[in-house]
Specification:
Layout: H1 10-34, H2 36-45, H3 51-71, H4 75-93, H5 101-127
Helix pairs in contact: 1-2, 1-3, 2-3, 3-4, 4-5
Length: 137
C-alpha cells in the first residue's frame, strides 16, 4: 500500500523538516558566536583539546552549517556532518553513565535526544533536500 497523503507535498515537508531540524543548532550557534568567550570557557570545561579552536568549530558547525542545511546548500554532506557532530556531542557533553540523581536523568534525556536528532540528519542525508533548496537550483 502506498502512502499518498503527503506525496504531492514531499518537497514542502522536506523544507519544513530541514528548518525544524536546525533551529536548535542555529539558535544555539548564534548564542555561542555572540558570547564567544563563554563558548571557549565551555570547551575548556569539557577538557577539549585547543579550546579556542574547538569553540570555533562549534560555532561554524552549529550556526553556519545549520543555516546551510536550512536553505538546502550541500545538504547531504552537511547533514552527514551534523549527524556525526550531534552524536559526538552526545558522548562529550551528556555522559549520563558517570552521573547520579537529577544530573543523571537530565543528561540521559539529552543524550538520547542527540541520538534521535542524529537519526533525523541521517534520513536527511539519504532523502536529500527536496526541490525547495539551493542544491536543486
Amino acid at each position: 500500500m502506498r502512502y499518498t497523503l503527503l506525496d504531492n507535498q514531499k518537497d514542502a515537508v522536506l523544507l519544513v523538516a530541514r528548518i525544524l531540524m536546525v533551529i536548535l543548532f542555529v539558535w544555539g550557534g548564534w548564542g555561542k558566536l555572540i558570547g564567544f568567550s563563554g563558548t571557549v570557557a565551555m570547551t575548556t570545561g569539557l577538557s577539549l583539546p585547543i579550546p579556542t579552536v574547538a569553540a570555533i568549530v562549534v560555532v561554524v558547525v552549529e550556526f553556519f552549517v545549520g543555516i546551510a542545511v536550512a536553505i538546502g546548500f550541500l545538504t547531504r554532506p552537511l547533514a552527514l556532518l551534523l549527524a556525526a557532530y550531534t552524536l559526538a556531542t552526545a558522548f562529550i557533553g551528556h555522559h549520563y553513565w558517570t552521573m547520579t540523581g537529577d544530573a543523571h536523568v537530565a543528561n540521559m534525556i539529552n543524550f538520547y535526544k542527540n541520538v534521535s536528532i542524529t537519526g533525523g540528519f541521517l534520513l536527511l542525508c539519504i532523502t536529500g533536500p527536496g526541490k525547495y533548496s539551493v542544491d536543486r537550483k
